[in-house]
Amino acid sequence: MKKITLLLVMAICLSLITNIEPAFAKFPEKPITFMIYTAPGGLADITARKLIDVAANHTDATFVALNNPGAGGLVAMKAILQAKPDGYTILLVTQSNIEKVVTTKDAVKLEDFIWLAMLVSEAECIITSTAQEVNTWEQLVADAKAKEGKQVWVGPAAGGRDHVMAMKTWEKAGIQAKWVPFESGGQAMAAVLGGHGVAYVGNPSDILGKPDLKIAALSRETRLEQFPDAPTFKELGVEGLDNEIMWRGIAVHKDTDPEALQFYSELFQKITQDPEWIKFVGAGGADAVYYGPEKFLEIVKENEQESIAYLKKLGLLE
């Protein structure tokens, strides 16, 4: 009788245990807002939306794209910090955001975020117009020396990533030039096509579908398969410019729930191995990578220190 009673009690307890709701539901249990710091249609926006598409191959989670442009990414970054750090709001970030944070000083701090995953690495390059007389690297250097600092290079912002790249290039090549900023990369490239500047600092993907633009110098160890005629800086005799990149990745609030962080870590590692994602990223000559929080933060801090140094040379920082 006692044995039957004990078995009955155990059966009741087991029934109660199996029907108890877990203390913490498995993440995610509602849609995730994927915030994009640019307006719709740009490369960052296209990248984020493709990431959402590929994520569907590996998770049933729902992602909702939200464009929140303004102030070079500061509007979106502030919105992330104001949101509840439960993991349901993530932010697409690019290297350009670092320069913006540095120039605005205390508006947003890099330490306010977990730099969750770096997913794309794209080489910086010098772009010229084939319609202009000066379009090869050798011609660019000769023209710069002849003009003694009056040669015009263009890009999307003063003190931004591309401006810093231009300054590094001038130093390494032993030339001087003038930087003229435009509101967007599209406007800057139009200026080169129109002969209002001789060089645009950007990335290989910028010239896709633009036959009148060419890569005069590429910041990589080796040439790109997608752009076999684009010479590297090393081939052109310029040392120290073999790994200048524009990266894209994901950041979240520094207090984000650990369960959410684990979910994203596993998901993004799967995405970076997905053939669909690799093909998408590689089409423009970029590399699909995965650097987790520790390595990504190291890269971000290096970018920060470099930006501070060059912005001080420009007189944009004290």
Automatic annotation (TrEMBL):
Highest rank taxon of the organism: Bacteria
SUPFAM superfamilies: Periplasmic binding protein-like II
Signal peptide: 1-25
InterPro entries recorded: BUG (IPR005064), Bug_dom1 (IPR042100)
Alphabetically ordered keywords of this record: Signal
PANTHER family the record matches: BLR1237 PROTEIN, TRICARBOXYLATE-BINDING PROTEIN
Family: Belongs to the UPF0065 (bug) family.
Protein name (Swiss-Prot/TrEMBL): Uncharacterized protein UPF0065
